[in-house]
Amino acid sequence: KSEERKRKKKEKKKEKIKRKKLRQKKLKALDRKLNQTLVQSLESFKKSYKIVLLILFLGFIFATMLYTALLIVVVERELDNKFLRGLSGYLSLPAYISQDGLIDYYTYIDTKNILSSKFSQAEELDRAVKTQIVESIISNNLLLKYNIQISLKKLSLIEIKNILLEEIMHDQTINQVGLARINKIKDLIKKEDDFIKIANRYGDSQDKITLSLPDDLNDFPHLSELKDIEIGEVSGVINDNSGYYIYRCFDKREDNLYLSYVYVKGKTLNDYIKERVGQYKLWSLVD
Asked: Which pLDDT score is estimated for 208?
């Protein structure tokens, strides 16, 4: 009986080993099958991926050719209708490429139509259109810089220009030189207490004026800031659209103010735009 138990035990052990080997064999077969399936799937995906890429590439080429043909037809024939103007709101039809982006074809057309009556020569008109468009871009960039939102405030063109005229005089970058000069003059006057000497030496111009109150209140732009000035007092820096002033009151009788002033020229809005127009890069698609 003891030998019989040993034999049965031995047979069970062999059967167990046999089943284990069979499981391992099945697992290996399954692993090989999975690997084959994965490889086949990857190969199929690569082929599909290449086909999709090819289709997308060909689609892109076709769309580019169609877009280029449309742009050429619009520019060559100067097409202008409601459909194309509406389309340009979704699909850019550029007339110029600038360092700030694309200039819409119908912006070019509208500008050209406005200026066409002022120029008889085509070349002169083209130059004027480019200059006008660049000036608009520069002005819009200034509006963004000074965070002026036209649409919210519903400002007129004159109001916008007046705001820019004022803002640019306080711009520490654009008017760095003028502001530095007038502030230096202000410090020297305070330090040396010799207004005429400092004004003659460091100012662009200096002079004397007599103002009558209230007669000159509307005619002289700085009078509201100077009406309470006392004899011997020196004003702060006051600017207009062309530069910077410092005033000194040397006499005051009844309703009359007797003032000396020193003036330093600043970079005006027109100066800045003219300078930037000369530097601005604009590539034409309509010439």
From this structure: 93
